[in-house]
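Hello again, I could really use a second opinion on something today. I've been staring at a protein lately and its backbone has me curious. You're getting the sequence in one-letter code plus the fold written as tokens. I'd be grateful if you could look everything over and explain what you see. No rush at all, and the record is pasted right below:
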Amino acid sequence: MSKVINISLILCTFMVVIGCELSNRKAPVSVSWQVSVPDINKSNNNEHRFVIKNISNTPLSRNWSLFYSQFPMKSCKQQSNMVKVENVKGTFHRISPKENYKLLNPGDSIILIISGRGEMPGYSMKPEGVYWVDESHSSTPLPVELVTRSLPFIYSKNEKAIQVYKDNKRIESAMKHANGIEVIPAVKHVSYSQSYLKLKNVIHIVAHPDFHTEVDIMKDKLASLYAIVEDSLSEVQLTLDYLQQKENAVNEEYYELNVTNDKIHISAITPHGIFNGIQTFLSLLKGQEAPYSIKSVFIKDYPDFSYRGHMQDVARNFIGITDLKKLIDILSSYKLNVFRFHFSDDEGWRLQIPGLEELTEIASRRGHTYDESECLYPAYNGNFDYQSETSGNGFYSRDEFIDLLRYAADRHVSIIPEIESPGHARAAIVAMKARYERYLETDPIKAHEYLLNDIHDASHYVSAQGYSDNVMNVAMPSTYRFMKKVIQELQLMYEEAGVPLKSIHIGGDEVAEGAWQGSPICKDFMLEYSMTDVQELSDYFIMRIVDFLKEQKIPFSGWQEVVLGHDEISERYLTDNAFGISCWRTSANNHSDELIYKFANKGYPVILSNATNFYLDLAYDAHPDEPGHNWNGYADESKSFALLPYCIYRSIRTHLLANQKQEEKTSLTAEGRKNIKGVESALWSETIRNYKGVEYYLFPKIMGLAERGWHSSPIWEPMTGIDEQLAFEKDLAFYYKRISQKEIPYWDKMNINYRLPFPGLYIDKDGFLFANTPILGGEIHYTTDGKEPTKNSKIWNKPVKCRTNEVKAKLFVGNKKSVTVSMNSQFN
């Protein structure tokens, strides 16, 4: 085959290079990858071009494979005479020779073009974990070092930079009027005095013995973050005691905080209230250095919602126990009180279950395999070594989880475990299938005991994540034995931890159409129970699991699909036994946003998990260097802040402006309003590769959730038109002011990997460059020579004459920096 000449593509993006050594061995090929988009204004078609080159000294026979992971495109078409690509499972792909493959001589190349429709490849959409396998010798896979180049903007650079500038300008204008106690979430009622409390490095603490746990945590924070230690001789006294006027307490989390010139007094009717008061006191110290100064103030404060949660997906990609504790500690400092533990999914099972060892022996690790007898297929990061310390591998031991339960409980955070079922269960299904194979010859009863799939199932379906084998068979008794076993083991862990198990989330979402239709066991079961539709199988499963949980006195939680399509009798039963229904589909296009109020009006306890506002793994912005998904748009800290629990149809804003057009949609009744129980963010981990990635997505995005969980009805909720816009912008400006002056210094002290927004840019008709940011105290550095801005580049602090074709700029705060924004001045 002739050598390949360099080809110019419309948009040059990535290059992947294979050639690294492993035990003095080199892969015999290099692989480059580029993507082009014919016309981003007319379609979202993508063309991916792989170039595979023989860089060895010998011809390559046909017995080889290249494996890689990449989020799949839809409606793919392949072009190559020599090789083909096949989807193995989910995001895992294999390139291998076709029947008419010819020897690939040294220096020669193969071109493989894959075209289809899907998300425009951004930072998170590139191929990962490419590795080479010589199939003829069963050789050890050879790893890949991934080299990337900058991606093209998928929107007009100028248009985006200018829009950001305009949005920032409105926030900047509103910032002048943004005043209040600078804590997140904002406090309810405040009255000031003229004096100030001065606090150096010692404090005298007097506390009721019931609050010893809260005091110990507070002492640790004072010492580690602010170098303040306890000393009975200190002139400043901090008292923590029960509230005398108990009738003042609006709810169990109510607290009062009184700061005078020499005293701090926190009172509440519960330890949780005391903990909340402590967090507010600690927040008053943020952004300061010793000696600390606090204006005398009296605060009465409480949350509107009793459920203020965050769901962390540790199944797709793993987070170590130390990092998980750090995350819970940080979230509790913002008074979040629920941590949903999403420990199982298609790509991993992360919790040790005694008696079901295969769940962690096999389903907690991913690597190179052909039969998944030792591990699951690679996914996402594509790593082929199931023994390596990567985000694809790992689990929490029983003892670690018990310790985590106690750790969270000390911080007044309830952990709600989620057993994904009956869909999103591939990891468990594969593990139990391996158990079946292990014991089939020696102990057939044990082999079938917890089997989750019908081995003769011929059903054809594809899940939202590209799986055709991820749904438990709900007609098999072994499926219910499995669920009961996991639930009972969870109960024992909570009992040993001495922590109440408030609910178990049973998943229930995204069961693909077509599941069970080809299962002989399901067909027989449906005949036996006079079922005419496979939906009845799903209903049967839900009711069976809820029945068992009820026997154990455990309320159930689930995704919104769990409560769809039931008759009135079933609905009454489900509403009586539900703890929380996580509502995530909030699209105005298909009216799924109405389901939230329909559920609440029927009596279901609703937890707002709106994907548009609270799915934090959505990229902050369409900028190609921002990690994250874009299947449901983009979500930054202003999107989470903008959610209106009782005006859900106005929770999606465009360029910070409220959408005033509302169709006739389901209204929330007075009774339904009582059933909105709280808010919960979700961080799915498909695009996360380490704990720093978790923090990048959460901070500052999750600040909006903390704010809305505490204040369900902001001042701008009942307003309309320009009054609403101005009130929203003033509130948003105060929000950014608190993030800038209080939270960023706190995150720096806590070594949190927060994200900075890129600056807005504008060049006026006279050629003057303007730049701005909603973050106070940052520096905007810019270049006009095409180079990337650094801290050594010019600082923008006033309009400057711009005599160049391109301007690039970044925001810098301390050691943090934003992605680069650029614009072409010649088009302005």
